Prior knowledge:
The structure holds 2 protein chains of 2 kinds. In chain A, 43% of the residues lie in helices and 18% in strands. By secondary structure, chain A is of the alpha/beta class. In chain A, strand 7 (122-130), helix 4 and strand 8 (147-153) form a beta-alpha-beta unit. Chain A is globular and about 70 Å long. By secondary structure, chain B is an alpha/beta fold. In chain B, 41% of the residues lie in helices and 18% in strands. Chain B is globular and about 65 Å long. Residues 1-10 of chain B have low confidence and may be disordered. The chains are: A alpha/beta, B alpha/beta. At the A-B interface, strand 1, strand 2, helix 3 and helix 8 of A face strand 1, strand 2 and helix 1 of B.
Amino acid sequence: xxxxxxxREVIVFKANDGVVRxxxxxxxxxxxxxxxxxxxxSRVGVLFLNSLSPTRAAAGDTAVFWADSFAKxxxxxxxxxxPGFGDSDGEPPPDLLxxxxxxxxxxxxxxxxxxxxxxxxxxxxVIAGLxxxxxxxxxxxxxxxxxxxxxxxxxxxxxxxxxxPTGRPSIARRIFNRISRxxxxxxxxxxxxxxxxxxxxxxxxxxxxxxxxPLVAAFRSLASRGFPILVLNAPFxxxxxxxxxxxxxxxxxxxxxxxxxxxxxxxxxxSFSNPKGRAxxxxxxxxxxKACFPQNDLKAEEVTSQSQVRNGTTTLHASPTAAAxxxxx
Amino acid sequence: MISEVIKKxxxxxxxxxxxxxxxxxxxxxxxxxxxxxxxxxxxSFAAERHFSYQGWVRWARYLAARQIEVLRYDYRGVGESSxxxxxxxxxxxxxDVQLLAGWLSSRSPRLPLLLHGLEVGAILAxxxxxxxxxDGLLMWSPPVSANHALRxxxxxxxxxxxxxESPENRTSAAKYIQQLLQGAIIDVQGYQWSGDLWRASIDxxxxxxxxxxxxxxxxxxxxxxxxxxxxxxSPLVPPFRGYLENPNLSWLYDENFQRIAxxxxxxxxxxxx
Lengths: 329, 273
């Protein structure tokens, strides 16, 4: 039994919440032709935060796949089970979604980021997360001085509809639901849509009432500082929850200082776990990482371009070019 | 927050990598104080690992707190283990069990070694037990064949896709099965299932001598216990409800700990005799 192999090692931290366990995917140095020596030259690392996933591998082991890929491109990558999940100690919070939406993991994530930076001599950490993991990533980035970028997969910016004390929808919501199912409801909805469209035409969109305002504020604050943010959305999820396009709204309100890139990954679902989804996320993120956080591994650049040609996975119309990302810098 | 680099052995759970031909298995050894027996946990298959993980880890911790040393692991090509899932076969996964059981039984002091499998893991554990590995066998919900488990997983996946996917991406379970039988590779919850895997799963089943626990115990002269888990054991088994909520499964753990204790008593008595 060994605690590290050529490309990975087990990492263990002791925090106040108990023991936290994770995996370090070792960065490859294409100039040396071997695993990079992180103490020779500091590098930007990538940390994957759990979505509503019991393990750090994520659905279909996608996080393992992406972490392996980014490490091969020279970015040491890390996946950690939060307290109460996977191999880490502790219990999950009773209201997990509420905990995530209110930034409950920010302090433990910030601790992990700080610890990784110190232990692996990182020059900064890009935080990546899917869905609820993306929400945690935004809060963690706002709370951590070592964070340098965000990769958000299908982030959401709204909170669930208010519920009464018993967990049922509030009386007002139930009355509204009842009305909205009938002909009167349809009429009200049509009139409401027209009014909203008219108002937006004159003044630009307002945030919906169920917006997670602290999250939007954290995102906006990061974006205003010129924080590099890559947002990748799955098309169908976007259609389902697409009443309000938060990333585009935030891109617009922050103005020209923003370094937000928004892409839609065609042909995949919310978990991005099918071959097309995982390949496009890998490819787009690698190009974005190299544009925003170059590691000066020239051979790595060559390998990427060659593999893009070989795999033929760049045909997706949403894939940005490295030049497009470079212009953002 | 207090930060401190610690030795993994100080905390009783030791995550590691175990070398197998062509790769490494991710393992976690749950050490016990004054252990009386060892158990190799052989978990559920591929995507089901994701849902059953919390209940499985807690079971390992439960046993370790009661003087049973436990080794759990990820199948080759799955989770934290290295390897490419679509290149793996049931032979590889059977070999994983054999190698890990060999390592666990070589630990000192010599203690009874029990194999404990869940669903497809129960078939893997049972097949190794049939070949003489282990002093006892506990199986939770062994399917008739691995194909039954795969089929159930595929049906569940197809129904989820009906809800979540756009109409143009929806495919029925029957269509998926047809594609597999024609040798196509399909994506099931992020794992690439091949026609070969599907066909091999049809014949991958328990030896007939292990279908009944009382007959098996006599035939093998080693204790065998078979437990069919109901929906109340979810998220260890389908429908995997509450896989993020850590439902209280202590009733299941208590009941099965008694089984393990009885098996250890039988093995120890036989060894003494």
